[in-house]
Design goal:
CATH class: Mainly Beta
Distance between the termini: 98 Å
Order of helices and strands: HEEEEEEE
CATH architecture: Sandwich
Structural class: mainly beta
Number of domains: 1
Oligomer: single chain
Strand order of the largest sheet: 1-2-5-4
Radius of gyration: 26 Å
Largest sheet: 4 strands, antiparallel
Number of helices: 1
Length: about 150
């Protein structure tokens, strides 16, 4: 009986010493359902003053900001891409981490109060990418009720 207990203890020690575990070689805290380096998404925060006549709807104006890129390896970059939800890509450009109006002369600004649709891709240093269709609304020119 003592020999079998000793053999059990030796086997347990070998298991611990060799570092055998059930992680499948993934780093601590990794999600095995996602491939290493997979981008899981990003956020887009719309500028609160998107209405006709504001500086934010003129060429160079900021429509909104990108952030919270999940699973990306720095550095990462945003770009406009074709595909479903990209109907208005031609009216916009990507800044460092923001969406800006990019309308040439003679208009230089968004002129319609409506929903706009763009498709954005974030890509990281490892070549991983994630696409997202974004919709935002440009409101009509506010009415001055004070006269």
């Amino acid at each position: 009986m003592k020999k079998s207990c000793l053999l059990f203890v030796v086997c347990c020690l070998l298991f611990v010493v060799l570092g055998c575990d059930n992680s499948g070689g993934l780093p601590a805290g990794s999600n095995p359902a996602l491939p290493a380096g997979s981008i899981t998404g990003f956020t887009f925060t719309e500028n609160h003053s998107l209405h006709l006549g504001s500086l934010n709807v003129q060429t160079g104006g900021t429509v909104g900001f990108f952030g919270n890129v999940g699973g990306a390896t720095s550095p990462y970059a945003f770009s406009l891409v074709p595909g479903e939800g990209a109907g208005d890509n031609n009216l916009f450009a990507i800044g460092i981490a923001n969406l800006v109006v990019n309308i040439p002369a003679p208009l230089y600004a968004l002129t319609e109060s409506r929903q706009y649709f763009v498709r954005v891709r974030v890509a990281d240093a490892e070549g991983e990418s994630f696409d997202k269709a974004i919709t935002f609304f440009v409101a009509p020119t506010p009415v001055d009720v004070d006269g």
